[in-house]
Amino acid sequence: MNSSMKRELKVVDAAAFSIGLVGPVGAMALLGVGAVGILGRGATLAFLFALVVVTLVAYGFVKMSQYIAHTGSVYALVGITLGPRAGFVAGWALVGAYLAIGTGSTIEIGLFFSDFLNRIGLDIKPGWIVVAVIALAIVAGLGFTRVKVLIKTLLAIEIIGVVLVSLLSLFILFKVSTNSAPDGQTFNLDFLKLPEGANFSVVAAGAVYGFLAFAGFEGAATLGEETQNPKREIGRAITIAVSIIAVFYMLAIIAQSLGFGTSEAGVKAFQGSSGPYAELASSYVGNWLAAIVSLVASISLLAIAIGTMNAGARILFALARDAGSKSLVTRVSSSGEPSGALWVMLGTALIIMVGQNSAGTEVLNATFYWLTIGTISLLVAYALATLGALRFLFMSGEKRAPKWQVIIPTAGVLFISYVIYKNSVGVADPYNKFPYIVAAWLAIALAYVAFKPGLVASVQAKLSEVSTSKDK
User: Fold this and answer.
1) Alpha-carbon distances of 374 from 6, 10, 38, 80, 237, rounded to whole Å
2) What are phi and psi of 218, to 5 degrees?
3) In whole angstroms, what is the distance from residue 308 CA to residue 78 CA?
4) Of 80, 381, 396, 427, which residue is least crowded by CB atoms under 10 Å?
């Protein structure tokens, strides 16, 4: 049984993996709708708030990647800094996040691909489960290719989508700025204003969609054992990915907000949209572009599914390997891919989708349910990783960062904790149940750590082998 990976990637490859995993085009296909449902005309503020907090969190990942390179990503970062038990739980939280987000994104493909078929005049209405299962099969087919080929596929998909949506967004902004928009929308700054009676806590509640948009920005860290000079390149890759994604998101959400209009009617239209890109493309350009945009969004969502399933598989592989398991999860293909863990991820996603379809859940609800569950689990992993960075960089007795920078991870932990709280208390059914689902998922890891003989010692021994010295 082969358990080694090949170091063949460069900084561009690692950054491309993070961008492909995030899937910015697919991410913005619906998340603006979620944000506008909470923040109205101020939906842009959800993404601005999330960008600030993601920047604070990214600081920890960038700094820590200079000392620790490991395919387990958060698992290794937290395990080395806060101990093996916390590390195992953090890694499990990230596996859950990637699984849920990958599943939700695969379900979402059913929504946009059906819209594409409708717009090109094909009277075919496959159920979302049919499209989702086919998409999952494609994910499986691409997932077992060499990682370098996988990354090139993800990057090619996103480049096409980002260029197309960016051009559409710029055209929308041109039309509203020249008072030639189809329904009389004009350029204004109301997209930065909260609705009447809203406050900071509402922004924090809406920020869950902003965080979801950035989910996976740290994906490059899972390539720590497959990247050349990882202690130098992983941090750079994360910085590049966050910067590119942030610019695209600001352009997209502003164009969507102004494209629909910031009036009460415009906000209502935006909130009720099941495909903002396509509706705006149809209104501002024509149905032909709307069809292309829906197809591109479907393909971008496929990229998210590919990226999350593969990143989750790498972390699951690392957890099982370091726990001393000799099961299917630790199997690696001849090309160095964690094939066993990927089968487990794909199989679990399939079970979830079949279950949701059997329960009669509508595609939009099924999408948002699993994306929200994934985001909460992701925030738990981010909070633990940021706490680990805080301890490692500023409380270890070694000078690893200027003392004044302690405020960065501290603020990150506080903001993340507040967002988790706002999305756990006082939210509507069934969203009020999602924190308990995440808690149950984490309880599995806690029980495994507590009752699996020798696990903690095995994980501790494996992580002690990881060098924490900074490359010169």
Assistant:
1) 29, 29, 19, 24, 23
2) -90, 5
3) 20
4) 396
pLDDT in tens, 190-220: 999 888 777 778 888 888 888 888 887 887 8
Residue 443 has pLDDT above 90, yes or no: yes
Residue whose entry in the numeric block shows the structure tokens 């805080």: 390
Domain 11-450, CATH homologous superfamily name and number: Amino acid/polyamine transporter I (1.20.1740.10)
Structure-token pair, residue 207: 């920020």
Residue 90 in contact with residue 381, Cβ under 8 Å? yes
Query: CA–CA separation, 390 vs 43, rounded Å?
Result: 31
* pLDDT per residue as tens digits for the range 160-197: 888 999 999 999 999 999 999 998 899 999 999 888 77
Q: Domain ranges in the chain?
A: 11-450
Neighbours of 347 (CB within 10 A): 12
Distance of alpha carbon 385 from alpha carbon 408, whole angstroms:
13
Taking only the tens place, the pLDDT of each residue in 233-262 is 888 888 998 999 999 999 999 999 999 999
